[in-house]
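Researcher: We're teaching a course module on how sequence relates to structure. For the next exercise, students receive a sequence and then see the predicted structure as tokens, so they can try to spot secondary structure elements on their own. Here is the exercise chain.
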Amino acid sequence: MPRRPTVAGVPANLATILRDIGALVLMQATLMLLTAVVALVFREFYVALAFLIACGITATAGGAARRAFEDAPNPVMKHGMVIAAGGWFATAIFGSIPFFLSAHLTPVSVMNSYVPAGANYEPIRIGGETAFSSLAYYGEPLHALFESMSGWTGSGLTMAVHEPSLPRAIQWWRSLIQWVGGVGVIVLTTAILARPGSGSYALYRAETREERIHPSIIHTVQTVWRIFLLYTILAVVVLFGAIWWSEPRLSLFETFWQALNHAMTGLSTGGFSVTDNSIESYDSTLVEGVLLPIMTLGAIAFPIHYLVLHDRDFDALFSDLQTRWLLTLFIMGSLALSVQNIIALPVASEAFTETGWLGVRNVGMSALAGDAARDSTFQFISALTCTGFQSSDIGSWSAGGKLIISGAMVLGGAAGSTVGGIKIIRGYMISKGIQWEFSRVFLPVSAVVNTQINGRKLDRNQMYEEFSEAAIVSMLWIILLITGSVLLVNVTPEFGYADALFEVASAQGNVGLSTGIVGPTMSPLGEGMLVLNMWVGRLEIIPVLVFIRSALFGLNP
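Model: And here is the predicted structure for the students to work with:
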């Protein structure tokens, strides 16, 4: 039997994977260094030290892997799948180090100085001291990993009970990793593109399964970044105006800070917030209205943005199948959820307080119905775009409302965007495939059957191939969802199955909405499972299965 090639004593396949994962980890070290500078600007010296130490650890590990295996072969598709899965997990692990070190290096007295004046937060016991900043929760390694995985996968579920009590640099880090992680293709390819001809398009396909905007992957990454940066700047400007109008008591800097962070996490459909109770804190129709188009932009496929901005092809926006269905589902889902929540109002009447069923100050059923429609619209669009901004206490909703939101989180937005979920195109392919199978019953065996999907003409074999891919991924997605929800409801008996299903759908769909299960007091088993759900959901299952198979049996046939 011939000997398999090796690089530095390591099998060539493994060397290729380790080198390119090392490049991704090395890229994260640069982001940590930038955040250390942010910490110094805000005079958060303990946090700055944590980021500098984390940067050194991350740069050493990533640089060592890249240098040791620099002569490894270029990646091909089988490597791309494993690098995509391993790279996401590695970035989440190293990304958790700043959270963990910041919690342990910062004295409790300094932690408490981050708590906003007048805030009444629950105490957190650390040894013999009492902390009030949510930074203390990151002292648990699993909590730190959960926050990092949630950030890098654009999920938005958090262990920070009170985000305003976090240091500014930690708030920035959470938003930054969602902003970068929201465009996963860039995270997976930026460092690798430093080596021209590396075959990194294999990674691009493993992550997005979409056509390139340009023939060159380098141009693709540059174009996506330009679009993303342009939209972010515009989002900051409009959000600044909306927040300033809604919250005039805030300083100009605080208004800018909130606009910046919410623009970054809104456009990346990540959903981390820097305010208590997410967007509900504003209780502003204007802020919610401004966020709707920002979230929508993140859920539209990036090739469509390119056609509109570069080619001035505005017809592409409405001729694209996924965009049309995204907008159609916005209307249908918002109406269905509004009706469901308005019907549920009398049922909830016994629980009315002066703040109303939805947590909005109002009195009277007509006002509550209006608030129900407003919150239903925002929450459905937040769920379908997989953003996860929360404008209402979803935990108080009826099971029917939670299930509608869960369905939106499972489906998600357009493939080729920053969203999670199964994706609209797969849902459409499954429905089209079922229709196609029924229609074949009435046709002769010799009939030539073609179908049109989004401007493409598919023959029988192509239809089978695309229908099979959509059905397999969706089936695996649903199996994992049901398995996870059954496990979660058993470790959180104080919640019902609708809540458990909602929480797993949110994690696996990389959304971030919560009914109250996720938090620092949840079961470690449930928390660890949701970490895996977020990871698997971001990679759409197949690369994770390839990763597991490769870990057990290697990459060779």
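Model: If you want an answer key for the exercise: Residues 212-479 form one domain. The radius of gyration is 24 Å.
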